[in-house]
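re: that chain from earlier
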Amino acid sequence: MVDVAPLRVAFFGTPAFAVPTLDALLASRHTVVAVVTQPDRPRGRGQRTTASPVKETSAAAGVPVLQPASVKTQEFAAELEAFATDIAVVAAYGQILTERILKIPRLGMINVHASLLPRYRGAAPIHRAIIDGEASTGVTIMRMVRALDAGPMIAAERVAIGEHETSVELEAELGRVGAALLVRTIDDIAAGRAHEVAQDDSAATYAPRLTKDDGRVDWSRPASQIHNLIRGLHPWPHAVTFAAGHRLILHRSRTSGGTSERAPGTILEAAGDRLSVATGEGILDLVEIQAEGKRPMSVREFLAGHPLAPGTLLQAS
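^ sequence. v structure.
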């Protein structure tokens, strides 16, 4: 193995997606001298104030943790400067970094982005790729600039998306791929052999942040598109529909390949393991469903306690 001079690294990240990259850096020859993550916030159904996954990992490793409410303050810039970092790595941190912060590390800042840039710039690249029915996506390591996800690309790796793969499953895979790719990229930068390629801005697409309104199912759309919406919005904010005014959360589905002349949203069959719904094109089978305030259930479990008659119309609100 070619000897690689170790670098002093600052790591910016918050959710579970960032943890494999942090773990890989901690296990590498480079030294993580500081971790920057979002402040502790209420999370989960009970809204208990808890640390981010990145903070928990950092604390267990004994790495100093910074949690600025805003990265725009003079105090935070001075704190970061005191660590004398060679380079900073960003993986789903959650705040927009200022020009001053970008210039503090000697070799600049690089980002682990969960798409093949320039496609899916923005906050929700994994979810949007699945919702759009993409057969593959990937991870790009890019140099950070002020413009959103527009910096030159240093490395990229493609990952296939399974037909029934959800966002949470794809995120875990991309986290593992991105971690290995990031460490190789850091080694290349340290050795002076990294090569940067400008993005083609004309080919850029945008992946905006998700909202609960994204989850409302329009049954006039094709079954394949609704299936992609359901898996793309799992585990949040979830695809939802309404039956007789009751909100139903849709966790998993599959397309059956059949056809129906019934109005989109009409339940065609509701017995045993089968809950089939007519769509604008084809039939969608619901596989896992949740009533408001209840746990997710298989269709068989759900129908045992929440009977739905064929002919019932599912609606967007």
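The chain has eight helices and 16 strands.
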